[in-house]
Amino acid sequence: MAKKKQSFFESRRFKYGSSAVILTVVVIALVIAVNVIFSAFAQRYMWYADMTNTKLYELSDAMIEFMDGIENTEIEIIFCTPFDKLEENEYQKIVYTTALNLQNRYDWVKVSYIDIITDPGSVKPYKTTEATTIKTTNVIISNGSDFRVFAIEAFYTFAQSDNSVFAYNGEKKIVAAILQMQGDNPIAYFTTNHAETVDNSALWGLFEDAGFDTRKIDLTMEDIDPNAKIIIVNGPKYDFGGSKDAVNEIAKIDRFVDDRGSLMLFVDPATQTLPELEEYISEWGIAFGKAMIKDYSNAVSVDGQAVVSVYPEEGLGASLHKQMRENFEVPPKTIMQNCQPITVLWDDSYNSRTVSTVLSTTDNAVAYSMEDGSELGHGPYSTLTLSAELEYVQNEDLYTYVMVGGTSLFGSDTYINSNTYGNSDIMYAAIKALGRDKVPAELDFKLFQDDSLDITTAEATRWTGIYTLVLPIIAAVIGSYVWIRRRHK
User: Fold this and answer.
1) Cα 273 from Cα 288, distance rounded (Å)
2) Is residue 151 part of a domain?
3) Which of the two residues, 413 and 282, has the higher pLDDT score?
4) Considering its fold, how many domains does the chain have in total?
5) Among 248, 204, 203, 200, which Cα is nearest to 223's?
6) Average of per-residue pLDDT values in the chain
7) Is the separation of the CB atoms in 267 and 237 below 8 Å?
């Protein structure tokens, strides 16, 4: 009897071929499933390697240190657009990544979303007035009883030249908001009623970013809150009330400083004589030079008035820029524009008070009379000084500070909101020293445009090898398993 011919579908070739096809399909499906699942978990738990030079997508050590010290609070970071839309906007994505990192690290931080397009009423609790407008790019930070609403631009710093974004400042903004809502953040007062520069100044914003509850104060009508740490007098044109006046403003400042508060004073060269204020600072070993400094060989303006500062390396004042000098081979320039000399009245300690120079000029600087423009002398001149009084309380060293600068433009928008100059670095160092409380002054911005990879060739080779070999190894393991099974079938 003739042997029945075996059909192709019953042959070993078809069986093994079918098995191979099925195995291939299963492996591909498995790879796709693993990729989808891994991507979902990676997005949820931030399984990313941040290889940008400035670590834009990671929490800095300073941020973690501050957050670790915050207790007894519940924070919600609310985005006004669905989560699947957040990564479409590069600027929102970075803020969103910071928020997710915080949520994954701290169980008291929650990230949530509001779709204000489909549900515009959802933002009503966060409107201070009916006219308040909240956009899809806004970010709301709330602790349940209080909240702050930020435009996305608030998390970035812009270049003055072309208004382009050059740095991410989100960590400082988030920490400052949290500290402010805790209600125990220190107070910084800006004096008013003497024609000072206060409203919308970059200096005001800098104190806010440093975590201060920043307020105005009219000393002729108000008393100083016991929680205040610093009083800022920026560019007064008129004198403060003294002992012969109806309200003694100088006495209020003196009591505040005696109680270990600190004073920052910035006065322009063209300011008229201020007898009461000048007498007070003379007690701290400081006097105004009442002249205009020009340094044509060391200025960033053709008129020689935007003077590039010299950094002294000795004395207490030098500590305000020590870190900046050590971190940079060539430290950024600190500019004193439209500045007068600040005279140090004594070199050594006097009645437990010590005066030191923070910033000075070169020997080439020249001081000119404000009355007739005549030449008064050559530098170097002090332009920013720091006077300190040391007290011992329960075996602890406690300092009180009075800082005096020769220009109200030290904290101007041109020099504070720029990564070109060192003015903001020195101000932050001064805020830390004079404020004494823990504020997020050391949370530096991260350069936005510097998005280059910061890994060595060896690291790049290692990562390439890992990603290149993973899938082939998986395929080889599966193939070996199938081959062994066939051999022993």
Assistant:
1) 9
2) yes
3) 282
4) 4
5) 248
6) 80
7) no
Residue with tokens 């549900």: 119
Last residue of some domain: 185, 209, 231? 185
* Nearest by Cα to 371 from 262, 487, 272, 473: 272
Q: Is 18 found in the same domain as 132?
A: no
Give the pLDDT confidence score for residue 285 in this predicted structure: 93
Residues 6+ apart with CB under 8 A from 37: none
Residue keyed to tokens 């990671």: 58
Q: Which tokens belong to 487?
A: 């051999």
Query: In this structure, are residues 352 and 282 in contact, taking their beta carbons and an 8 Å threshold?
Result: no
Q: How many C-beta atoms lie closer than 10 Å to residue 352's C-beta?
A: 11
Q: Are residues 368 and 389 in the same domain?
A: yes
How many CB atoms are closer than 10 A to CB 292?
Answer: 23
DSSP state of 437: S
Diameter over CA atoms, the chain: 136
Instruction: Tell me what the mean pLDDT of segment 411-433 comes to.
Output: 83
Lowest mean pLDDT among 43-47, 72-76, 183-187, 267-271: 43-47
Q: In what order do the strands lie in the sheet with 187-191?
A: 213-217, 187-191, 228-234, 262-266, 396-405, 382-393, 353-360
Element holding 202 (H helix, E strand): helix 202-209
pLDDT at 438 over 70: no
281 & 347 share domain: yes
Q: Quick one: average pLDDT of 228-245?
A: 94
Contacts 24+ apart (CB under 8 A), 91-94: 91/137, 91/152, 91/155, 91/156, 91/165, 92/137, 92/152, 94/56, 94/57, 94/155, 94/168, 94/170
267 in the same domain as 155: no
Return the C-alpha torsion angle 251, 252, 253, 257, nearest 10: 100
Residue 280's CATH number: 3.40.50
Give residue 377's pLDDT.
92
For residue range 251-307, what is the model confidence (pLDDT) as tens digits?
999 999 998 899 999 999 999 999 999 999 999 999 999 999 999 999 988 899 999
72: CATH: 3.40.30.10
pLDDT in tens, 156-173: 876 655 667 777 888 888
Give the span between the Cα atoms of 445 and 172, in whole angstroms: 8
Tally the residues of the chain.
489
Rounded (10°) angle between helices 202-209 and 423-435: 50
Q: Which domain holds residue 217?
A: 186-438
Residues 284 and 421 in one domain: yes
